[in-house]
Write a structure and sequence with these properties.
- With 204 residues, this protein is mainly beta.
- It has one domain (3-201).
- Helix content is 3%, strand content 61%.
- The chain has one helix spanning 122-127, and strands spanning 3-6, 11-23, 28-37, 40-51, 54-64, 70-79, 82-90, 96-98, 101-102, 111-114, 135-144, 149-159, 164-169, 174-180, 186-189, 193-201.
- A hairpin with a 5-residue loop joins β5 and β6 (70-79).
- It starts with a strand and ends with a strand.
Amino acid sequence: MGELRKTSSKSEFIGQTNLLWTGREYYSLENCVVNVRPGGASITSTIVGLYDEKIYQVDYRIQTSQNWETLSLEIKYRQSNKMQVIRLEGDGKGSWMKNGEQADEFKGCIDVDISLTPFTNTLPISRLPMRQHDSQDIHVLYCDLLAGELRPVFQKYTRLSETEYRYQNIPNDFGATIEVDEAGFVVDYPQLFVRTAAFTFPSE
């Protein structure tokens, strides 16, 4: 089993977790492996689904610092016979490179948010030292794969309890109460995703 290290505001999980999520709106299944070490986390995941009468597949990799700041993101996205590859590199402080070129349009974004997975909610939840009833406004690099868009957005997280967070996407007034486990991984995201399995192991 992996190890949970308790801090004053949350539990820090050290180890490997294999997660399976079912997408409700996007008719998807995601197999995600999160490997957390003292120096940072590496995430490898594959999503397959059906949307707008088209089959899609997403393979993504994320690397974070030990403080859960996103350092790199690679996405390979296929819908029907079209393939797209996105590579983003960050310094964890808000500066980004996209496919090897400076991407000033994302300046100030610390976290990434991929529309087709609940995993990326874990990034700010793990990074921000929130106690119960604390709120944080954040600037996020949003990857809307179905629309073919990357854009910066403002989001807000409020910690309601040990296992519940209120998420708000400020530009479009969308909000949801997300249930997570003690490691910060999503258990239930109403109307969008539900976790169907989770297994933990020691880090490789």
